[in-house]
Amino acid sequence: MIVVTGGAGFIGSNLVAALAERGETRIVVSDVLDHPAKKASLDKHPVMELVAPGGLGRWLEKHGAEIDTIFHMGATSATTITDMEHLLDNNLGTSLDLWRWCSRNRRRLIYASSAATYGDGRAGFDDDNDPAALARLRPLNRYGLSKQMFDIAAIMLAHDGYKPAQWVGLKFFNVYGPNEQHKGGQRSVAVQLYEQICAGGSARLFRSHNPDYGDGGQLRDFIWVGDCVDVMLWLYDTPSVNGIFNCGTGKARSFLDLAHACFTAMDRRPKIEYIDTPENIRANYQYFTEARMTRLREAGYGRDFTPLETGVATYIRKYLATNDPRR
Prior knowledge:
It contains twelve helices and 13 strands. By secondary structure, it is an alpha/beta fold. The protein has a domain at 2-176 and 222-250 and 289-306: Rossmann fold (3-Layer(aba) Sandwich). A seven-stranded parallel beta sheet has the order 3-2-1-4-5-6-11, sandwiched between helices. A two-stranded parallel ribbon has the order 7-10. Strand 1, helix 1 and strand 2 (27-30) form a beta-alpha-beta unit. The radius of gyration is 19 Å and the shape is globular.
């Protein structure tokens, strides 16, 4: 049996779909269906059981002998959340509970960390598994801090020998793709640009307030959600791999590149407007992110990552333009 927390969410629902497509029938999802899009994603790929997050601990104790792997994708993921007590309870406390359960019962745990742990990138984007290196990172928001705290706890517990049968943390970079409609303002820039172009014919990008970057020249490591799923499935098939790994493409692309990819996919001529970066985020705005993918490659992952233009074209033409955001 496979448990996917957050299995009706963005990355989690794409993982559930991929597991179902490869023939897995004993999939259990732990999530709250608080948005019609989340319910729709599960309706397309019915699962064995839906467990409320608050009852997951009791459910695990009852069904523990049947479980092989927990994919922990559930979290409070909004980078604007400032309630640290909530984040510590939901992102750190719940993750530690699952770690303890998997460690006691010798089950596997693959969990979602985040590139938000890297902050402004001054300390680099190297997924070093040394606790001191992790502690040197300075996240720019409390969400990133909560993820960093669990990464450090996981590394230290694993070093002490208290660990699941397999454990992997994935630092997801800028993920885009189907099933993200419930995320509101936290949706990928790809879908937001698509909606802007549909509504008014132009795309709006932030003006640069850094002399090292031109307008629209801010860089991100954009990764197609299907590539994230492929990495997780490879890890599931390769139980000897353990540790924290980046999950990006290893190639930063500009927001201008992303906008042009959207226009091309929509068969429209580019029309771009530049607006000031809001003052409330300007001081902590990231101008560059790029995953260093050496560790994952050295661990044996060999698949190519989807080029930005290909991923955006697939997203727009197969899902957004057909009004079918579900995988």
